[in-house]
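Progress report, Aim 2. The chain analyzed during this reporting quarter is listed below.
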Amino acid sequence: MYEPTNRIHFNLLLLKQLYCKISAKTIAMKKLFFVFSLLLFTGISPIFGQLGPGQVLERFFNKYRYNPQEAVEFIFSQNPIFEGEAAQQAQNVQAKLSQAIPVLGRYYGREPIAKKEIGSSLVLYSYLIQYERQPIRFTFKFYKPDREWFLLSFAFDDNLSDELEEAARVPNLLLTDKKKVDGNKW
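Predicted structure tokens for the chain:
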């Protein structure tokens, strides 16, 4: 009788040691998971990094489709400089756009016009914003002085038809045709 009790006691000790080892690993894994989650949700994650201009614009247009005001607030939040005096300028742009939207009619979508880069740290994106009555253009400039991109400026205008007419004027056409002739494109 004495011997089986010792075996049971010995087996219980083994189980307890095994449980402690498993618990220590589980606790370590939980701590690691917590730290990783904290980094991920605070934006400090070295794996996923900061959003690039293309990702910021994708989020902007996803928001713009349903709530233009929220989208404009989001795009200006991409630069901490838009606080104080610059915040007033951002509010002016928001107010002008809010006044223009009801006049433009229903929103249909967007088309990229141009993407221009200077080096690897300055980029401009231009989009044709399609509305029922008239298109407008959004122009975004992003700058990356070191590691992180931020919004340098955001503007909108409705000069697209004027620019199209200007491009169709005879002197501009002659310049274009001259290039074509000189480049043997005819």
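The mean pLDDT is 76. The chain has two domains: 1-48, 53-166. These observations will guide the mutagenesis work planned for the next reporting period.
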